């Protein structure tokens, strides 16, 4: 059902495309053409680990499909896998009460935040699936201590770290769980944990050092720890997570700390010492332990490293939605031990109350999904999607761009480079621009780009309205090169560009 829903929602235009997704797809396309790990501008692929574009390229070669189609179909299939894996994790953690697995699967399947992430080309869906597989394998290792479970954890942690940098939290989680399993022999636990960490981190370290640093003089593309305000991220993330369970018109007006704090205060007032001991025993012992550690480490990593500007938009929660399933494990464990256990003499009544409350709550996410799907069918995804939209598909500027793209050997410049690549599938040359993280200095950029476009005449496709204020516009570019206006309408302008 989830696969059909994702396919239906994206059927009109396909998956959404943002700048990050365009970089991933264009890098995969350049790999297929033998150009190496470079994006649509020819810049080296250094901002993320390389697994995703390599996977897109491999699947594209295997199926004969365009990298965009591969990424779209892969995400649709991954939604079904994520719902199944989330339910399996919950069942593994609550085998004594399967009702939680059933309810948790419905929460995951009805998450509009997860659906919107699935509806866009990006690394998050595959990373989420790898994380859930890791937790299932980790719980198996905690139960058996088997060698193959150890190997499975190592492989999944390694793949996750090559998918996204926060995958290092899986490596740290695995090391902690290995030490926990061997805690009666501290030396063995330390050695096993260290061996696990080294082996799983080695491929990522090789990528960061040999490719990023030695070849391109950067470790993480210059974006890690940039414009990071941990306290803001903490407040902002809490509001987004609360929004998964509470309508936005409530969480936007009631402080999230109050929404979370009132139930916690109520539990503090009514719970006894033995209740908290039972709750702690549930959380800090397998199989819930692995979800507790990974959720804490991943959440801390994101709060301390991500660009706070990226998270200021109310619905931009893709960094956090990956922990939905393990977070449900912790929430359900708390409810079971601190609330349901108090009425254990009447378990059937407790289950009935839970089902009634859940059925009423389910109206909120189901209605949200309905609104999202209805809008996405008409406009394209409305959260992370910048370029695969109805407005651009119907714009004349895109038609002109596509005609230019058919000309052999033409160089294309644009303020929206990712859009120019997506609608032509041709690499785009870089036009004068500053860092997106800094205020533009026009005079310095004019000096830096003196002589542009050098020996590469072509076309400048200028999309309107322009939200990229760090890019030099036609008025300033005319001080560097000869610009001849050949097309103009409300959607943009096209100039023929020649060196002076």
What percent strand?
5-15%
Measured as a percent range, the helix fraction is 55-70%
Structural class: mainly alpha
User: Which outline best applies?
Assistant: globular
Uncertain stretches: none
- Average predicted local confidence, pLDDT: 92
Strands side by side in the biggest sheet: 1-2-4-3
Radius of gyration: 25 Å
Count of alpha and pi helical runs: 22
- Largest pleated sheet: 4 strands, mixed
Question: Please, could you describe this protein's structure?
Answer:
The chain is globular and about 85 Å long. Helix 1 (2-9) runs antiparallel to helix 4 (67-93), helix 2 packs across helix 20 (417-424) and helix 7 runs parallel beside helix 9 (168-181). 61% of the residues lie in helices and 5% in strands. The protein starts with a helix and ends with a strand. It has helices spanning 2-9, 19-32, 51-63, 67-93, 99-109, 112-118, 124-144, 147-163, 168-181, 186-216, 230-243, 248-251, 256-270, 273-283, 288-305, 324-338, 347-379, 390-393, 396-405, 417-424, 442-448, 474-477, and strands spanning 411-414, 458-463, 481-489, 492-499. The mean pLDDT is 92. 42% of the residues are buried. It has 2 domains: 2-379, no CATH class; 395-499, no CATH class.
